[in-house]
Amino acid sequence: MEKKASSFSGQIGFVLAAAGSAVGVGNLWRFPYLAAKDGGGLFLLVYLVLVLTFGFTLLTSDIAIGRRTKQSAIRAYETMRPKWKFLGILTFLVPVLIMTYYAVIGGWITKYAAVYLTGQSAAAAEDGYFTSFITSPVSPVVFALLFMGVTAFIVYNGVEGGIERVSRYMMPILLVLVVVIAGYALTLRHEDASGQMRTGLEGLRYYLTPHMEGLTVSRFLQILLDAMSQLFFSLSVSMGIMITYGSYVKPEVDLNKAVNQIEIFDTGVALLAGAMIIPAVYVFSGTEGMSAGPSLMFVSLPKVFNAMGKAGVFVGILFFVTAIFATLTSCISVLESITANCMEIFHSGRKKTVLVLAVIYLAASAIIALGYSIFYFEVQLPNGSAAQLLDIMDYVSNSVMMPFIALLSTILIGWVMTPDYVIDEMQRNGETFRRKKLYRVMIRYVAPVMMLVLFLQSTGILA
């Protein structure tokens, strides 16, 4: 396959960019919630086992396909098997949908960072602040457009000059910020109204200790599903991103080491996020303080920061800057995946493609941002939850399409192409693919079953 015009400068550039894609807002608002809900250390043990088996298999497949074909999703699957081009089209549609709302979430985070930087942190801790913000017809749109504009500017500047350069700065800073906040959280102490004293170290113990009380087979299966879905969505697989990034990897790069490093970085940040958030919430709100989704980041945590006093303002600034970095690097990867596919389909240059996509997604972001005000409506999803515009896009892309695509890709690689298609690429330069036997078993037998179960569960078919 001919060399692609764009490429990462080397292994470090690729790993940091790929880790930036994998480390997203879900690491900050979903992982800690699930860890607290699903037995603390028990969830962590299950998650780590899945990282080394299930996550490794899917991540390896996407990156190896990208480098071997030197194409983005649509052309990559077509190159593998022309009749499977439809899978590439489905994969391409995932980031197309996600991009409509990711900048909106990035805009919310940017708004909160601005609030803390301008000394209005007390207002952010008030009941109803988040709701009043997202239901405004102006402010959410402005911040979404700002975030979308920054994302487009970085992608406009190319792989090495834009994406890699930003990732080289942002990812180390993000890691340092998470470590600093986690370290501070462990020093916290607070006495509640009843006189009970809670400390950050107690919160850490609650986070790390496996809670086996009341554990049943059904309960364990739910924990397994939660860990599997979190890992699946965290790694940026089955949405074409890692295929695109893999296509930018130079032939001499050792993919075995690169995959290991991406796994370590993504998992490390997730574990540190739990050590950062759970002890802090535990100290000021107890075990009842953990909540799911945006309410953790935009409702619960501002109250925790406010309870810290003056130090909470500084911690809040650090946290939301960290969240901006995590969201921006992920948003960049989503737009880059769309850009790369469009460049291949329409034979257009990067700058023209990004400008056209920027106009489209500035408009789309504005519409989604207004989904809680002017364009507000509510529908019932098959999984039973009530949804607005943003939730619908998220459900279709994340809960329906991604597990379905992953299921089909495991069948394609495991049974149509055979695992050797990926294994040969992993050993391209004579490197030893140490988990080769594990990969064969996972891609052919285990991963397809896991993806089928996850698809049935995430769509609400399997209760």
From TrEMBL:
Protein location: Membrane
Keyword Transmembrane helix attributed: yes
Transmembrane residue ranges: 12-29, 41-65, 86-109, 129-157, 169-187, 220-243, 264-284, 311-335, 355-375, 395-417, 438-456
Classification via InterPro entries: Na/ntran_symport, SNS_sf, YocR/YhdH-like
Topology within the bilayer: Multi-pass membrane protein
Origin superkingdom: Bacteria
Main location class: membrane
GO cellular component: membrane
Keyword Ion transport: no
Signal peptide residues on this chain, from the entry's feature table: none
Keywords: Membrane, Transmembrane, Transmembrane helix, Transport
NCBIfam families per UniProt: Na_transp
Entry protein name: Sodium-dependent transporter
Organism (species): Faecalibacterium prausnitzii
